Amino acid sequence: MRWFKPFGLVFVPVSIPGWVITVLAAAFCLHIFFFFNGHSHSVSDLLYGVFPYWVPTFLLWTWIAGRTSSEAGRQHSN
């Protein structure tokens, strides 16, 4: 089953599990942004606060998308 479709350097969700993972990752990143935005005094404070959370979230999302995309299915079937 294909959850994501490659679109250039990113992936687009094409099924319900793909959309659920994407919305959960975006909601988590938004929550982290609002939390640190209330406690930061400058843009650099905000970036230093969100970076340790956003990067692993984006990497995990990209890993899941890459493993469940149509391209990954073709590589495993050959």
Task: Please outline the helices and strands.
Blueprint (H helix, E strand, L loop, with lengths): L3 E4 L2 E4 L2 H24 L3 H25 L2 H8 L1
Antiparallel strand pairs: 1-2
Helix pairs in contact: 1-2
Question: Concise description?
Answer:
The chain is mainly alpha-helical and 78 residues long. The chain is built from three helices and two strands; from the N terminus they run ββααα. A two-stranded antiparallel ribbon has the order 1-2.
Describe the protein in words.
The protein is mainly alpha-helical and about 80 residues long. The chain has one domain (about 5-65). It has 3 helices and 2 strands. Helix 1 packs antiparallel against helix 2 (about 45-65). The model has no long low-confidence stretch (mean pLDDT about 90).
State the main characteristics:
78 residues; mainly alpha; two-stranded antiparallel ribbon
The major pleated sheet works out as:
2 strands, antiparallel
Strand proportion: 5-15%
Question: Mean pLDDT score, rounded?
Answer: 88
Question: What is the oligomeric state here?
Answer: single chain
- Give helix % range: over 70%
Q: What is the number of beta strands?
A: 2
How many domain regions?
A: 1
Along the chain, the helix and strand elements come as: EEHHH
Radius of gyration: 15 Å
Poorly predicted tracts of residues: none
Number of helices: 3
Counting helices, strands and paired strands, the structural category is mainly alpha
C-alpha termini separation = 17 Å
Shape: elongated
| Arrangement of strands in the largest sheet | 1-2
